Amino acid sequence: MSLEELSSDIETAYTELGEKHPVALDRETRNELAMLTSAYEPDDPDELIRRAVHYLFQSAVETGNLDFHLRSGYDVTYDEYLMGVTMDTYNEQMGFSQPEQNDDNARRYQF
Asked: How many CA atoms lie within 13 A of 82 on its CB side?
């Protein structure tokens, strides 16, 4: 897969989610949401769900989990998605080429 396919999949998912996306809650999730609602007292429990999505996203970015899944499925990273270009393409455009050698001794000294 590629950067273009990732962008297309994100646009499709965004459209399918629409403005309102009902979430079915299991017993455990409902209990946890009730606890958080009692503790944080938001105007609307939906605010806690929005915060949860933001927290999960931030955590996935910071731990590299998002990059792992994007690299596995699309062969790109989140940074590459944000830039709109893969690092290989960017390096080629900037005139930086990576050595094509597979010499273990040479790789040992590369950082």
From this structure: 5
